[in-house]
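haha ok so turns out i had the wrong file open the whole time. this is the CORRECT one, sorry everyone. sequence first:
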Amino acid sequence: MSLDGENVVIIKDNNELGRVPLHNLEGIVVFGYTGASPALMGSCAKHNISLCFMTQYGKFLSRISGEVRGNVTLRKTQYFLSEKKEENIKIARNFIIGKIYNSRWVIERAVRDHSMRVDVQKLKDVSDSLKKSIDMAFVCEDHEVLRGIEGEAAKLYFSVFNDLILQQKEHFSFNGRNKRPPLDNVNALLSFAYTLLTNNIVSALETVGLDPYVGFMHTDRPGRVSLALDLLEELRSVFADRFVISLINKKMISSDGFIKKENGAIIMEDDTKKIFLSAFQEKKQEKITHPFLEEKIEWGMVPYVQSLLLARFIRGDIEEYPPFLWK
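then structure:
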């Protein structure tokens, strides 16, 4: 890829395959080991266009970032809070409350919409258990205990995830979460969705001036976008999981679009990726009412709004960070 004026140009064997105006783009995702010119990378950074590189199998490689945004005071406060356990836990707790609440909502929505096709009692039992997990997280004051609550809640949620898949069960059954690499079609879809959503969250955090590598729930580790993974927790089920389930149940994809590698890893073929990415962009453009702001926004703006709310809390503009509690 190269830059010509204000256009991205795609070139193969010295032949131009197409061009797209930069002002039409929110992000570019590159698969395989093809490159981008320094001029294009610089322009993307300047215009805050996410440029993300992945392997041909969808594994994240790197992303292009521009100058650090935001004032130094905001980031210094973020670093300070991340080191103070009594302050840190307040933020981490709300991330996990949001995650469990939304996981429970996904299950309750399935009961409401498909009561004749699911085991209602089974799903209700899990929903009730998740409600208890929320209550425990609400009063938790210890990070290790909070991680235990989160882990148990995730097991409960994924124990009924297969019940939410209503079509193509012979090829899209879910028997537990696996990754690095994903070993079945459903996990391949989930991992891809989480990678794309994480990339969107990283961009949002950088836009509001926060450091995506310094989190409150996820511990610091070189190269890990811990804060982005924190925010991802509340959006996994209502955005990524529901999106994947919808792709399967609406038969927008089929088992023919997946390949099994020698090591057992399942990857998507190019045509399946195109369907996925196109539907993902459409999903981001859907309008919702934000539960805290009570204003209409696009789904794709949710990571930015949550990042902005987190920045406002860190600056002291609001009393606590309001997690995304979908209804």
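The CA atoms of residues 41 and 306 lie 27 Å apart.
again sry for the mixup
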